[in-house]
């Protein structure tokens, strides 16, 4: 059976921004249905001299820092893993868990639980909070990236981690999507968006340099995912088409990030900074059709598994009487997206499978 293809017109867009008049041409094109293997491998023996993972980010990386009543602590989140809500914005594992598995360590515990963790902090710590950004966001009062790094710096100054610990560590940086949602929610103009993107990437680069300067050996930053393909953006087309304009803005962010990372590597005379291309990984999964045995067929990769029964409700919503105002698909393994923004465990696993070839960068 051939995968159904969702087509939309190729849109190209020029961004001009000062002080240098640079035109960036970003194009967006169609997407297709995907398949991915459903096998999950978890090895716990550090390899390549890396034994710690420090995570700075948002809900794509948070494994439990958000407090209740965040949706990640409510039913039906966590139904696949660990079988109940556990602070992850998914039905199961997220990117952090897969990266830790790749390194061969346990997923680092959330910063909020560090006092109860004992020796577990030797795997590193997760400072990511769902809803946060490079800058403050309206969505969340939780710590932005700068504050997350402040927490990390305090632990280093308190000798929780030694220089040796840091020299065998890698940092995952997963931020910026909420900055753009916040910009739009705050009535930021389309004309002002390129300038805002420049300021987000500039701050991101400063923060990454700071993490490296604190002694972390490698800093892996995610290239922004195709925000225009998130269900919240595709709902208006009944989950058939990505929003090309949003994806163009993401393309601009990612091209600036690439330049910033190249500059950081030049300045530090190293290859300490690497990009994990989430945009390419998401679109590869959307476009790939693999008919080998055991592959998973994402019926429609843009359609979420868990949806509110009407637009004012979202996944996990209940009314005043505690009545569910959402529905969950029969098999989350057949869905790429869990809710309006976040992938399912299977979605993350398929993205991780695409990224795996480039993950060796963290050892070079």
TrEMBL record:
CDD domains for this protein: SGNH_plant_lipase_like
One Pfam match: Lipase_GDSL
Signal peptide: 1-23
Origin superkingdom: Eukaryota
Matching InterPro entries: GDSL (IPR001087), SGNH_hydro_sf (IPR036514), SGNH_plant_lipase-like (IPR035669)
Keyword terms: Hydrolase, Lipid metabolism, Signal
GO terms, molecular function: hydrolase activity, acting on ester bonds
GO annotation, biological process: lipid metabolic process
Family: Belongs to the 'GDSL' lipolytic enzyme family.
PANTHER family assigned: OS04G0650200 PROTEIN (PTHR46020:SF4), OSJNBB0059K02.9 PROTEIN (PTHR46020)
Name of protein: GDSL esterase/lipase At5g03610-like
């Amino acid at each position: 059976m051939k995968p159904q293809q969702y087509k939309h017109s190729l849109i190209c867009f020029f961004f001009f921004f000062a002080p240098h008049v640079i035109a960036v041409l970003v194009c967006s094109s169609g997407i297709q249905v995907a398949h991915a293997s459903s096998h999950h491998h978890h090895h716990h023996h550090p390899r390549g001299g890396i034994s710690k993972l420090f995570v700075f980010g948002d809900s794509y990386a948070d494994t439990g820092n958000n407090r209740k009543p965040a949706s990640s602590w409510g039913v039906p989140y966590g139904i696949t893993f660990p079988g109940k809500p556990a602070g992850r914005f998914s039905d199961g594992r997220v990117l952090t868990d897969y990266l830790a598995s790749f390194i061969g360590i346990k997923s680092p515990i959330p910063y909020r639980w560090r006092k109860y963790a004992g020796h577990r902090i030797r795997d590193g710590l997760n400072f990511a909070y769902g809803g946060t950004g490079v800058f403050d966001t309206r969505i969340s009062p939780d710590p932005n990236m700068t504050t997350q790094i402040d927490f990390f710096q305090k632990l280093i100054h308190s000798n929780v981690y030694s220089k040796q610990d840091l020299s065998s560590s890698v940092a995952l940086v997963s931020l910026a999507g909420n900055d753009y949602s916040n910009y739009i929610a705050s009535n930021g103009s389309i004309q002002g968006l390129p300038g805002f993107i420049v300021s987000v990437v500039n701050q991101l680069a400063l923060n990454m340099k700071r993490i490296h300067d604190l002694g972390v050996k490698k800093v892996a930053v995610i290239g922004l995912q195709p925000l225009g393909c998130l269900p919240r953006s595709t709902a208006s087309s009944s989950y058939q088409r990505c929003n090309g304009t949003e994806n163009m803005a993401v393309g601009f962010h990612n091209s600036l990030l690439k330049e910033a990372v190249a500059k950081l590597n030049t300045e530090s005379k190293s290859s300490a900074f690497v990009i994990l291309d989430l945009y390419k990984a998401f679109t590869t999964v959307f476009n790939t059709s693999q008919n080998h045995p055991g592959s998973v067929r994402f019926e429609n990769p843009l359609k979420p598994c868990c949806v509110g029964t009407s637009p004012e409700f979202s996944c996990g919503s209940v009314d005043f009487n505690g009545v569910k105002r959402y529905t969950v698909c029969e098999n989350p393994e057949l869905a790429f997206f869990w809710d309006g923004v976040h992938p399912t465990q299977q979605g993350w696993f398929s993205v991780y499978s695409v990224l795996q070839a480039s993950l060796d960068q963290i050892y070079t």
